[in-house]
Write a structure and sequence with these properties.
The chain is an alpha/beta fold. The chain contains 6 helices and 11 strands. It has a single domain, classed as Dihydrofolate Reductase, subunit A (3-Layer(aba) Sandwich). Strand 1 and strand 2 form a beta hairpin. It starts with a strand and ends in a 9-residue tail after the last strand.
Length: 253
């Protein structure tokens, strides 16, 4: 692996985001949101409906390191279904590493859904010690509890749709203030459009997709938001980019 920015160097792949822990931002805005996504060179967020074919070994390691870095993984229900999510238990090594950094052994999974169309027998709900959170709308909450209440904690976080600030505030009140968002495109767009993303970890895979594949953020209102480049790594053609919102502290070197 090569680090291209800020200081060029040849490194072992294992050095990628090693020891990464998301910051605790403090009371002014009691959460930190890191978006973790992969895209093709031409901007596609998936191929054949899933993102797994876009990145290589370095992207898979980046995802694992991001999941090791925070309190909760926030993801939309469509992404959970399409990508085949299961419990975020991770390896024994990853659990021990999280404990050593003062984090819970396993990050919580928080699923955003307006419809509540999730199968209570599907893999995300099968781990007995890790009940996912399901963030839904107030009108749908009772129906979703009837469906998922035995296997998940259901929270109303909005009226016509799940409201991003309400959802993040609820996570922070639960002590889940370091948030890794894994999409999909609609959820990403809502968070970006509301100015709620502190940093973006983006892998650009060395391929094109064309067709009608979605972008990593899609829908809603345009809100141009400048970012500050923190680091660039390259491995087998994958570019791993880390950006921060300009108002946040720079990454410690």
């Amino acid at each position: 692996m090569r680090r291209l920015h800020p200081d060029a160097a040849d490194l072992e792949l294992a050095a990628l985001y090693a020891g990464l822990t998301l910051p605790d931002r403090g009371p002014s805005r009691p959460w930190w949101v890191a978006m973790c996504m992969v895209s093709s060179v031409d901007g596609a967020a998936s191929t054949d409906g899933v993102s797994g074919g876009l990145g290589g070994e370095a992207d898979r390691l980046a995802l694992s390191r991001l999941r090791s870095a925070g309190d909760v993984v926030l993801v939309g229900a469509a992404t959970v279904r399409q990508e085949g999510y299961g419990p975020l238990v991770g390896s024994a090594e990853r659990r021990a590493d999280r404990r050593a950094r003062g984090l819970a052994e396993v990050p919580r999974l928080a699923i955003v859904t307006a419809s509540g169309e999730l199968d209570p027998t599907s893999a995300p709900f099968t781990h007995p010690q890790q009940r996912p959170l399901v963030l839904t709308t107030r009108p749908a909450a009772d129906r979703v509890r009837d469906r998922l209440g035995d296997v998940a904690d259901v929270v109303a976080a909005g009226e016509e749709q799940v409201e991003p600030t309400t959802a993040l505030a609820h996570l922070a009140r639960l002590g889940l203030s370091r948030i890794v968002c894994e999409g999909g495109p609609r959820l990403n767009s809502q968070l970006l459009g509301a100015g709620l993303v502190d940093e973006v970890f983006l892998t650009v895979g060395p391929l094109t997709v064309a067709g009608g594949a979605p972008r990593i953020a899609q829908g809603g209102t345009e809100r141009p938001g400048p970012l500050r480049l923190e680091s660039v790594f390259e491995h087998d053609g994958d570019l791993l980019l880390r950006y921060r919102e300009p108002g946040t502290p720079p990454v410690a070197r």
